[in-house]
Amino acid sequence: TAATALRVQRIKPSPSTAAAQRVRELKAQGLAILDLTVGEPDFDTPEHVKAAAFEAIRRGDTKYTPVNGTPQLRAAIAQKLEQRHGLSYSADRIAVGGGAKQVIFLALMASLDTGDEVIVPAPYWVSYPDMVLANDGTPVVVPCPEAEGFKLTPRRLESAITDRTRWVILNAPGNPTGAAYTADELRALADVLLAHPHVQVLTDEIYDEIWYEPGRVPSLAGVEPRLTERVFLTNGVSKTYAMTGWRIGYGAGPAWLVAAVNTLQSQISSCPSSISQAAAAAALTGDQDFVRDCVAVYRGRRDVTVKLVEDIPGLSCTPPSGGFYAFVNCTGVLGKATPAGEVIGSDEDFARYLLESQQVAAIHGAAYGSPGYFRISFATSTDVLTEACERIGRACADLS
Ligand code: PLP
């Protein structure tokens, strides 16, 4: 008989993956969908990165690698962390896996026991609560309102911590809001954390290079050296180098955790793809012009999108500081009725209305733990964004 394990019954497929699938189906039916759900760069992987992969194949780097990644890739990761944050991680403190997603999942699997709590500030990346649940933990969602910049405050952190708290997850720049903590804000969170030595912090820095503000986005491990042994810093090459399909991510942190992650990986996948590792090393150590060029393009799209959205009565949007998403406040249209007489009672209703009336696909805020919003990805052309915003405006104007 079919008998799905409880750990699977507790979770659901990723809503972003499900949305992408729905868009594919509608397109296959011949509908011209304007897709704003995309969670990956619309650029191609840079040529020199592809060349490194071809070279790895030719060289015969086509076998298992060490569980924790090739020495070349770990050296490239260590070099990035040193240059960016002044942090020095020895080889035994870096784990490499099949995407940041896998590394985060393994870190939770390696550290959570039944009932352990993980503080997840909302809006959150859709996967965190389910990853915690799949590993027998309890997600403790802490709402972080737009008025507080969608960021966890020291006060909210303090009141969410209990004896059972194992982790706090900090994702900055964040998906879906693009919000990031300043060094001062991180220092204030660190003050709270220093008073609770049993709490560890998982920082998800996957969008760190896609950044629109002056300077570089700070990392908790770099800001507060006394926390370095309690921070698991995760990142990857997917977003920065348009390498989502290559599946390489990494984590740096305490040796005990990295060893536990590697033990799990040795039993789950043995190692990430040797070819992808060669490509990722080339991405991290090679010319960074590609990243600069992408950020310039994203910035232009961000500005256009935020302006067009702000011009639509009923909608508003805090400009994201990083990443490639705009999290749009749609509370102003809730309670209104569509031309067909249906009341828009929630952000989910609104997203469905946009899709059905205007063929614009976007993901509703409740999927990120924050009802009253929807997420626009600007990893798509300015033409698509402009047309989509026009249609969203029309959809709003049709409400009464
Ligand atoms: N973390 C966040 C916040 C993300 O948005 C994503 C991708 O959507 C990931 C991690 C996963 O990245 P990777 O492709 O390295 O698994």
UniProtKB/TrEMBL annotation:
It comes from Streptomyces liliifuscus. This is Aminotransferase. Pfam families: Aminotran_1_2. The keyword Protein biosynthesis does not apply. It comes from the Bacteria. Residues 33-392 form the Aminotransferase class I/classII large domain. Gene3D superfamilies: Aspartate Aminotransferase, domain 1 (3.90.1150.10), Type I PLP-dependent aspartate aminotransferase-like (Major domain) (3.40.640.10). It is an enzyme of class 2 (transferase). GO terms for biological process: amino acid metabolic process. GO terms for molecular function: pyridoxal phosphate binding; transaminase activity. NCBIfam families: PRK06107.1 (NF004769). PANTHER family: ASPARTATE AMINOTRANSFERASE. SUPFAM superfamilies: PLP-dependent transferases (SSF53383). Its EC number is 2.6.1.-. Its cofactor is pyridoxal 5'-phosphate. Keywords: Aminotransferase, Pyridoxal phosphate, Transferase. Belongs to the class-I pyridoxal-phosphate-dependent aminotransferase family.
